[in-house]
Design goal:
- This protein is an alpha+beta fold.
- Among the domains are: 171 residues, Up-down Bundle (Multidrug efflux transporter AcrB transmembrane fold); 93 residues, Multidrug efflux transporter AcrB pore domain (Alpha-Beta Plaits, 2-Layer Sandwich), CATH 3.30.70.1430; 174 residues, Multidrug efflux transporter AcrB transmembrane fold (Up-down Bundle), CATH 1.20.1640.
- The protein is 52% helix and 19% strand.
- It has 34 helices and 30 strands.
- The strands form seven sheets. Strands 1, 2, 3, 4, 20, 21, 28, 29 and 30 form a nine-stranded antiparallel sheet that branches. Strands 5, 6, 13, 14, 15, 16, 17, 18 and 19 form a nine-stranded antiparallel sheet that branches.
- α11 packs antiparallel against α12, α19 packs across α34 and α31 packs antiparallel against α34.
- The radius of gyration is 37 Å and the shape is elongated.
- The two termini are 34 Å apart.
Length: 1043
């Protein structure tokens, strides 16, 4: 029975094929217009922060009584991987990190379990704790950040205007939320002199009660009449600051006005909340995030219009300035990739036209936009937007999607050259190539399977490489068996008709003659069927293949020697996780000693601002004092709030300007800013890592961990490739110990709590009531005056009121002394953990290389570690290993699919094994090109190499299948091997040329460059091996002898 022939069916239904071509092209155009655009592919941050406050407790008390209890309970949560935490005086922060393999759909339920488990133990936490509070919104990216500034405008006025701006920005399409950055809450401070209160016989509690009673909101009742309900509203609530000053207090038979005994002033929270500074002045920031799946570029255009309108409406002196614009970065990135895609299309078209001739090349060329259109439609269906990964994958796919079209049209053309009629030639092309092409396509798609199945953040980040290539390759096979036969039927020239001189032939006759000699260009054959492959060029190639078959062991031995050499050479290729981003920002982290005040941090910030003001090549710079930047870029390594930390984000004019500024800053911090540790970094690609080289020291005893960490740091500092080697925590903080004499205190009716409350009120303040002003609620805070608050030496002289109504100096009931304590305790999985980390400023050196240099030097330290202590490798090496292990988990599926497809196609386990064994030989070219072009072997290059295995097996299976077809036709095995290699020379060489040359635009990409170089080298060598090594291997495998 005759088997169904899809190409034959297409030629019998030409109107339907024409309709499908037009319909799919239109669908593709519409799908492309609806694709969302973003800078990076979305990936799930599997991290949740649990924060708890316990005022008055030391860092060690918080660690032992709060942090440890929370960590212990969180160990019961499914998918828990790492519990990291830090404890500061009065604050516990636990970072719950789920396993990288946690399915994305399970993450919300995992976070619900975290809330539920902590809720179960909330009652067991110490009395006086606030919280725990939860934050799992780590994936929100504030792509646009604006700074609202104005000379002479305080934070209150800035906030009032920012609320109006926020309301307008939320009306912009695709805007999800707008958050204020650097907001300083208002306060009304009532500053009381401790000495004056003691003299008047007053205490703070009396003042607090007076303020609270007068400002209380209490029901006054209402009259219920026959027709109406009338409420009673007693007056007295504060509506002005002067009202607070006029509040009367009675004590000791006398009446006082608060304004007479205290200074009442309106101000802002002290010490300040984390601040946002723009170009050296205090500002209020507005961060704008986009809805999921939105078009960042369209949103950016709408925001520009809205901001321009708002700027015109602002009061004179106020400026709304764009600080960070992700739409511009995406526009630049997308434009570069679209430009590279266009270049790749042109290169592929030139390959087709040059090698196949104008009309034959046009058949292949017309299939490209159709396959791209179907690919865009598939991307729309699977919710894959346009971003750096999918656009790079499109360029990679472009070199592969023409392969099937070239193979199909070449076979059709060969049969027409042999005198066959067009429709018969198209039907034969399907019969002889459709099966091997489909198998080859499925094997190539299978090469991307480990990416698809990788259960990790890295796999999620790169998954669109599989999605885009799978859609494009499957669409290209359908186009090759349906559309290409129709286009070939309509467009292919008659190879046996009179040859007309081409435009190229008329202008470059020698080039045209060369193309004829090697079997390229417009088809024109005179003679019998075999004359097609009897040209001098094919005869020379036939002789070469015949020699390879005859000298098979020499060829196999040489190939294996080259493979072994490549494996040795691979040791000289530098490893990498992900390359740095091409964004224009430079990040500078400033970290002061633990215990430093926000005031000290701001002083260092202002010093650096003064330097940056004189630097060239800078568009703008912002400083985040007391915290890190909000996530304006998805892979940003976000920093948690800390008073001793500040972060600068400096936007430069260009990549050269960024690199020049980075070099100057590196030199600056080598000689200046001795009071802090700095880190100068570019933005990263891929999941965030932070410092590229890290080693963790874990163990139960903090002093021992600190001692071991110091030894590790000493080893790291000896490496010349590392800079800014530092510990994530080390210093102790200063404290003023107030040792209460319990006997004396009880005699005076005082308790430790009374002393603590008194000291807290004198220094930090006590909230008495709230001043209500419109939508604002402003705390009224009682505290000591500035003179008493700022002088440590006066603590013992402060007068503390007793239960008898008298005041006594604090020094009579307590002893004040200076001491040190742990100001910060980091833990990992319930053990103290210190991370020793270093930065690499030489762009030629990769983190895995430096890590490999250091690890042997740590062996003596590891050998003498006490029981229970560990030194672990972190940084880029650890993250890369996570991604690598998740990809490795997909290899069984990869091999299962490859073997199944090949078994179905080849029908022989022996031939299938032979084809699979050819795949690793591509590493010869991969290593050669990586070394020649000095490119690192990173995670993306590894994905490209895995995909390369599929491409190599694709060519091998087509060649092996051709050998089997020729044997079935009656040729001897020897002749079948040689003739199959000759017949498949042109399609294999052309498909390889299209794939390799289409990679050229990608080599300029910082992200995809190493992958492009690896595939180019691997495919070039693999093509040569397919045509020469596979025939020799086949002959050796089956012990073929010349007939």
């Amino acid at each position: 029975m005759k088997r169904f022939n899809l190409s034959e069916w297409a030629l019998r239904h030409q109107p339907l094929v024409r309709y499908l071509i037009v319909a799919l092209a239109l669908i593709g155009v519409m799908s492309y217009q609806k694709l969302g655009q973003s800078e990076d592919p979305p990936f799930t941050f599997k991290v949740m922060v649990v924060r708890t406050e316990w005022s008055g407790a030391s860092a060690r008390e918080v660690e032992e009584q709060v942090t440890d209890r929370i960590e212990k309970k969180l160990q019961e949560v499914p998918f828990v991987d790492i519990l990291r935490s830090y404890s500061r005086p009065g604050e516990s922060v636990v970072l719950f990190v789920a396993k990288d393999s946690t399915p994305t759909r399970e993450v919300p339920d995992v976070f619900y379990q975290v809330r539920k488990k902590i809720g179960d133990i909330k009652g067991t936490l110490p009395t006086g704790t606030r919280g725990p509070f939860f934050n799992d919104e780590f994936g929100d990216v504030f792509g646009n950040i604006y700074a609202l500034t104005g000379d002479g405008f305080d934070y209150a006025r800035l906030k009032a205007e920012s609320e109006k701006i926020r309301a307008e920005l939320l009306r912009v399409p695709s805007v999800a939320k707008v958050e204020l950055i650097g907001e300083q809450e208002q306060r009304i401070y009532v500053e009381l002199s401790n000495t004056k209160l003691a003299t008047l016989g007053l205490d703070v509690q009396t003042v607090t009660d007076a303020l609270a009673r007068q400002n209380a909101v209490a029901p006054g009742g209402y009259f219920e009449t026959k027709g109406e309900r009338i409420y009673l509203r007693p007056s007295g609530a504060y509506d002005t600051v002067e009202g607070i000053r006029e509040t009367r207090i009675r004590a000791g038979g006398r009446e006082f006005r608060i304004g007479d005994i205290a200074t009442v002033a309106r101000g802002f929270v002290e010490p300040p909340a984390p601040r946002f500074r723009f170009q050296g002045q205090d500002a209020l920031g507005l961060g704008v995030s986009m809805t999921k799946g939105g078009d960042i570029i369209a949103m950016g255009g709408s925001l520009k219009e809205t901001v321009a309108r708002l700027q015109a409406q602002l009061p004179v002196g106020l400026e709304l300035t764009e600080v960070s614009s992700q739409p511009e970065a995406v526009q630049r990135s997308v434009s570069e990739f679209i430009h590279s895609l266009a270049e790749a299309v042109i290169i592929v078209l030139l390959v087709c036209f040059f090698s196949l001739g104008l009309r034959t090349g046009l058949v292949v060329a017309l299939s490209i936009p159709l396959v791209l259109g179907v690919t865009f439609f598939g991307m729309r269906l699977f919710d894959v937007g346009l971003h750096k990964i999918s656009l790079g994958a499109l360029i990679l796919a472009l070199g592969l999607l023409v392969d099937d079209a070239i193979i199909a049209v070449e076979m059709m053309l060969v049969k027409m050259e042999q005198g066959w009629e067009r429709s018969r030639a198209a039907a034969f092309a399907y019969t002889s190539t459709a099966g091997p092409m489909l198998s080859g396509t499925l094997v190539t798609v299978a090469g991307f399977l480990p990416i698809a199945t990788a259960q990790s953040s890295t796999g999620e980040y790169t998954r669109s490489i599989f999605q885009v290539n799978a859609i494009a390759l499957l669409a290209s096979w359908l186009a090759a068996v349906i559309v290409v036969p129709y286009l070939g039927y309509v467009l292919l020239p008659d190879p046996r008709g009179p040859k007309k001189p081409s435009w190229l032939g008329r202008r470059f006759p020698r080039l045209d003659a060369f193309k004829d000699r090697i079997g390229l260009g417009d088809p024109h054959i005179d003679g019998d069927e075999d004359a097609v492959f009897r040209t001098p060029f094919y005869n020379r190639f036939r002789a070469l293949v015949d020699w390879c078959v005859a000298k098979r062991w020499v060829v196999i031995g040489t190939t294996l020697a080259l493979f072994a050499t490549a494996m040795v050479g691979f040791g000289f290729v530098q490893q990498q996780f992900f390359p740095n981003s091409t964004r224009l920002e430079v990040l500078i982290d400033l970290r002061l000693p633990e215990g430093s005040s926000l005031r000290a941090t701001q002083a260092e910030v202002e010093k650096l601002e003064a330097i940056l003001k004189k630097e060239s090549g800078i568009q703008n710079y912002v400083a985040y004092v007391g915290s890190g930047s909000p996530r304006f870029y998805l892979p940003l390594d976000q920093q948690l709030p800390a008073p001793n930390f500040a972060q600068f984000v400096i936007l430069t004019d260009s990549i050269p300007a960024r690199e020049a500024l980075r070099e100057r800053m590196i030199e600056l911090f080598k000689h200046d800013f001795p009071n802090l540790r700095a880190n100068i970094a570019r933005l990263e690609n891929g999941p965030p890592v932070g410092f590229p080289v890290q080693f963790r020291v874990n163990g139960p005893d903090i002093p021992t961990v600190r001692k071991l960490a110091a030894e590790v740091a000493a080893v790291m500092r000896e490496n010349n490739n590392l800079s800014d080697v530092q510990l994530d925590w080390d210093e102790q903080s200063k404290v003023l110990r107030v040792e209460v004499d319990q006997h004396k205190a009880r005699l005076l009716g005082l308790s430790t709590q009374d002393v603590a409350n008194f000291l807290n009120t004198s220094t930090r303040g006590l909230t008495a009531t709230s001043y209500r002003e419109g939508i604002e609620s402003i705390d009224v805070v009682l505290r000591g005056d500035a003179f008493e608050r700022d002088r440590l030496s006066l603590v013992a002289e402060l007068s503390i009121p007793t239960r008898a109504g008298k005041s006594v100096p604090l020094g009579q009931v307590a002893t004040v002394s200076y001491a040190f304590e742990q100001g910060l305790v980091w833990r990992r999985n319930r053990e103290p953990s210190i991370t020793v980390r270093g930065q690499i400023y030489d762009s030629r050196i990769q983190a895995p290389t430096v890590t490999a240099q250091i690890e042997p030097l740590l062996a003596p330290i590891k050998a003498k570690l006490p029981a229970g202590y560990r030194i672990e490798t972190g940084g880029a090496v650890e993250e890369s290993a996570k991604g690598q292990s998740s990809v490795n988990a997909g290899f069984p599926i990869f091999f299962a699919v490859v073997f199944t497809v090949l078994m179905v196609q080849l029908g022989s386990f022996s031939r299938t094994t032979m084809v699979v064994l050819t795949a690793p030989l591509g590493l010869i070219g991969v290593v050669l090109f990586l070394l020649l072009f000095n490119q690192p072997f990173g995670f993306v290059a590894m994905l490209g190499t895995i995909a390369l295995f599929g491409m190599i097996m694709r060519n091998s299976v087509i060649l092996v299948d051709q050998i089997e077809q020729d044997v079935e036709k009656g040729l001897s095995i020897w002749n079948a091997i040689v003739e199959s290699a000759v017949r498949r020379l042109r399609p294999i060489a052309l498909t390889a040329a299209a794939a390799v040359l289409a990679m050229i635009p990608l080599t300029r990409s910082a992200f995809f460059g190493p992958m492009a170089v690896a595939i180019m080298g691997g495919l070039m060598v693999a093509t040569l091996l397919t045509l020469l090594f596979v025939p020799a291997l086949y002959a050796a495998w089956y012990r073929v002898k010349r007939a």
